[in-house]
Write a structure and sequence with these properties.
2 domains, Ubiquitin-like (UB roll), Rossmann fold, single chain, three-stranded antiparallel sheet, 6 helices, alpha/beta, nine-stranded mixed sheet
């Protein structure tokens, strides 16, 4: 029996992964190759999967710890609340309506809910609540101010320029807005609701057309059954405005007339009425 020679064949060293062993048999003249067993790929995939699960679990736990820390640490409590845009509504009232408190958690503050709370209040038309750096909350509002009072059996209703019912009060102590008379309201809407009434809409259009000086000088605005509008100034002057046609121009003329009367020091108690119903021909009717 002849001895078998052991022959080792090496592949190109750049491409070879492992050397292969060959045994050559002289009798058969054939070459037999014996390969080394490869490692299981299935086991390596399981290890990678467990590593990924472990990393995910660690990230989730870390996130919960971070959220808990942000929610409980006093370092993230609200230190100040600023309010901008308000002229008639008090700053303290706006902060109270927002339901955000100084000392509460900065990240837990419900800014969208605060905006809804503020815009539900009739005197606030729009609100924006933002988080600011260094634990501050900024509130910016656009107010819906009252433009006049409507006389009703239930009291005096404050209305805005867009006919929204803002408030109801029983007296007019120290009021500085014109009273709208001649308007019959069959039923009242809820606070913040729009009052649907044609005569009221006419009166509000007149008041919205006045500049600030004239608006402050009007004591009453009466809308008659036939649509004629009569105004009364703080000086108890009767002003006949007529209908709604070109009312903006007539109001501008009225402002100039009142200013001229004051400059010339014409005795107000001697004036019966001022008539601006006819464009370009204002009339001052003196008492007999």
């Amino acid at each position: 029996m002849k001895r078998q020679d052991k022959i080792i064949i090496l592949n190109d060293y750049k491409n070879a992964e492992e050397p292969k062993q060959e045994f050559v048999s002289e009798k058969q003249g054939k070459t037999t190759v014996k390969k080394r067993p490869q490692k299981s790929k299935k086991k390596s995939k399981i290890k990678i999967k467990w590593k990924k699960l472990g990393s995910t679990f660690f990230a989730v736990v870390l996130a919960f710890v971070l959220i808990y820390w942000l929610g409980s640490s006093p370092l993230f409590n609200i230190s100040a609340i600023t309010v901008q845009g308000n002229e008639t509504v008090a700053t303290e009232k706006i902060i109270r309506l927002s339901e955000i408190e100084i000392g509460s958690n900065f990240f837990a503050a419900k800014v969208k809910k605060a905006e809804e709370n503020l815009e539900y209040y009739p005197f606030i038309e729009q609100a924006e609540v933002k988080r600011k750096l260094f634990n501050k909350i900024a509130i910016v509002v656009k107010e819906r101010p009252a433009i006049g009072y409507v006389v009703t059996p239930d009291g005096y209703i404050q209305v805005s320029a867009d006919a929204r019912m803002l408030a109801v009060q029983q007296t007019l102590n120290n009021y500085n807005l014109p009273v709208i008379s001649g308007v019959d309201l069959d039923e009242l809407t809820s606070l913040g609701g729009v009052i649907e009434n044609k005569k009221l809409q006419q009166a509000l259009k007149v008041l919205s057309s006045c500049d600030k000086e004239l608006l402050n000088n009007l004591a009453e605005l009466n809308v008659s059954q036939n649509g004629e509008i009569v105004a009364y100034t703080n000086q108890k002057l009767e002003v006949r405005l007529g209908d709604m046609d070109n009312v903006e121009k007539r109001l501008a003329d009225l402002n100039d007339i009142i200013r001229e009367i004051m400059e010339q020091k014409i005795p107000l108690d001697e004036i019966q009425y001022i008539d601006v119903r006819y464009a370009g021909v204002p009339v001052i009717k003196m008492k007999d």
